[in-house]
Amino acid sequence: MIHQRRARPMCRKGSVCAIIPWLALTLAVEAGEFDPRPALANDPRMTAGTVVNQSNVDSYRDALAPALADMIAEGLTQIEIGPFLQLPLHQGYVSATAGNSASVALGENVGDILGYVNGRPFPGPRSADEARSGEKAAWNMRYGYGPDETETNLMTWRYKDMEKGEERRIEMYGALMRFAHRHTREPMPNLPDNSLELFSALYLKVDFPFDIKNTQLLTHTKLDDGEPENAWIYLNTQRRVKRLGTGQKTDAFLGSDIMIEDFLGYNGRIRDMNWELLGSDEVLAPIYGFDDLPADKKEDLDGHTVIAFDGAGGCFPDITWQPRSVYLLKATPIAEEHPIGYRLFYVDAATYAPVMTQIYDRAGQLWKLGMVSFSDSSKHGPENVEWYGTVTDGVSMIDIQARHCTTLQFQIQIPESDLRQKMFTTQQMRAAGR
After folding, report:
1. Which of 360, 351, 369 is nearest to 406 (CA)?
2. 13, 21, 79, 318: which has the fewest C-beta neighbours closer than 10 Å?
3. pLDDT tens digit sequence for 231-274
4. Strand 113-114 vs strand 316-317: parallel, antiparallel, or unpaired?
């Protein structure tokens, strides 16, 4: 089924029956669709500067993801509580939600969405009792707000043993472009030249170390969820572009603890998972203001100021955490040969960003804990003044069973000039690899 097909309108555009839902949605947006304040923010335990560690973690278990609470109890890390922040969100996304979401509907099959233009597809409170609530939450996560074009001049991957520390460091360049459903950069909502019918494309290129320099990865996410997502890798040892098979997208990427499918929270097709909304909760999440972090929580990497990591093996982001309202979203692979049993996403209710992910193996045992460090863009330096959302500063994927982790440090920015579409082609991969 074609992704952009519109659901049949129930009434004519501009008529009273069309205006009333739009007004109701606009009021709902203004009332807090994008900035819900959790009751936990008023809990006296949540005083900024409080440190949750091995000695007091039992008093905070109700406000922590279980995997994180267990690691704190084991003495592997501690977290500091920061002030609650009402995060900004780009007005283009807010307006698009109010103007377009009334026409959005799920199709007959999982992975079919009708009438989507841009904005949040399914605003409003989610309930586990709501029909297909998990699928709606998954689409909200997929189409969560982010600038249409971003680039990272230095993306540092570190492979670490939780007892021995850092084993390997890789430096990359990265770029991301939305070809459709855009909110921030003209042309909107879609690029006119999109013959491959893409929603988005991600490009990575290794700059260091020398033995894998110029290794590149390109992923294409299609508009039609029924179409297979594509991924290619360029290996400098072979000097050719190779298309990755479906199974390779769940392999360890460049020997790290992260799969290609883990990128951006979940980089696969919606229809390849069974989605179940387990409910809502309030927990401490890795959201903060980058500019407010003290100097000892940052480090300098080749002239780029980035967040630091600490705890066992340097596997944990050294940032402040704040109470957030979240949805608990379970994604179970349909394919029996998939290497994981299921993922449990902690999805921030305000942004639909997956702030934490607990990954379970096929035996149902906890395997990995993923954490994404998000900064309030209004507290993230002058280069991101126009971002208006959450800026990703770092990622930590901890293999709990192997006692190993991979951490990523970013300094992402909105490019001053438009990214070139040809950057996201296999032809460009070959040219860059020469």
Report:
1. 369
2. 13
3. 999 988 888 999 998 778 999 999 999 999 999 999 999 999 99
4. unpaired
Give the type of residue at 341.
Answer: G
Distance CA 343, CA 364 (A): 10
Tokens standing for residue 183: 């909110």
CA distances from 424 to 179, 420, 432 (A): 11, 8, 11
Does a cis peptide bond (omega within 30 degrees of 0) precede residue 189? yes
CA distance 226 to 272: 10
Tell how far CA 237 is from the center of its chain.
31
The neighbour count for residue 29, using CB atoms within 10 Å, is 21
Cα separation, 414 vs 317, in Å, equals 23
Distance in angstroms (rounded) separating the CA atoms of residues 407 and 160: 8
Q: How many CB atoms lie within 10 A of CB 365?
A: 10
Instruction: Tell me the domain boundaries of the chain.
Output: 46-81
How far is residue 324's CA from residue 372's CA, in Å, rounded to a whole number? 14
Whole-number pLDDT of residue 384:
83
Q: ∠ at Cα 170 (287, 199), nearest 5°?
A: 60
Q: 317 near 309, Cβ under 8 Å? A: yes
SS3 62: helix
Q: Which amino acid is at 156?
A: T
Stretches where the chain sits below pLDDT 70 are: 1-31
Q: Are 414 and 147 in contact (CB under 8 A)?
A: yes
| The model's pTM | 0.92
CB–CB of 81/47 below 8 Å?
A: yes
Indicate the burial class of 49 (C-beta count within 10 angstroms; 0-12, 13-18, 19 or more).
exposed
Angle at 144 between CA 140 and CA 146, to 5 degrees: 170
Pairing relationship of beta strands 320-333 and 113-114 according to DSSP bridges: unpaired
| Residue 18 CA: distances (Å) to CA of 116, 263, 311, 361 | 16, 38, 54, 47
The neighbouring-strand residues paired with 174 are 152, 204
